[in-house]
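Entry 14. Structure prediction run on the chain below.
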Amino acid sequence: MMGAVMLFTARQYEFVFPRPALVLGVVNVTPDSFSDGGRFLEPAAAADRALELVAQGADIVDLGGESTRPGAAPVSEAEELRRVIPVLEKLSGRIRVPVSIDTAKPAVARAALDAGASIVNDTGAALRTGDFAMWKIVAEKKAGYILMHAQGPPATMQEHPVYRDVVRDVSGFFSEQLGRLLNDAGVPMEQVVLDVGIGFGKNLAHNLALLAGLPSFARWRRPLLVGVSRKSFIGQLLGADVAGRLPASLACTALAVAAGVNLIRTHDVAETVQAVRMAEAICSRKKNVA
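Output returned:
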């Protein structure tokens, strides 16, 4: 993945890989997200947090109005819109990086794109079997699109995830969905990023296998995103609570970058930027080592 030349376009933004990995800073406008739930419910606080993350080095801000933590209950379309649109309005003209809307709802994606977002982080991508509404919005708006694998919706995805071979199964999902995105909805591949969906319908063994198998996803010649930030599999392995999972999150991040991952989604931008840049500096010297 490191050597593959790839273009990622998101409306007026364009990124050409290989280049330094992009860091997505998370802002959740929710009362129940596992890491920052309840901290940024007010639009002004959420907008200020987004600008703070940009100042810390975030290349993209990922804004969400519905928790996707395991077991989370869904919220209505109206409530999700009420949470995120005022934040986008407050960021209008103030933010210099793309904003990604983290949603599974086509109407929320459209409204967010109309309000200034440039990327759709589609947490419901795996559930789109016959409804192409989300994808047609992405094509119409020329938005960036994050195609994330999940096994089931957040409310039930962790009850009993089963795979024959998780790396092979996720790769098969990408193969099928990339073809449908292009052929059924007219979304050019240049607009698509792949996300293996760490923690979304995966147990500890599945997550570790996916992280170990990241280089195999280079075959799709699309940028790859990984989000491990403070997730529960770290707690299961190490016995750490949410507040104590940053070191392990950074270890996973550095290894992901070494494996060729192009985008990292995180709650801890300043620390993650340091880890990413250090990993890149070391990896850039590998070719000079006999």
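The chain has nine helices and ten strands.
Filed with the rest of this week's runs.
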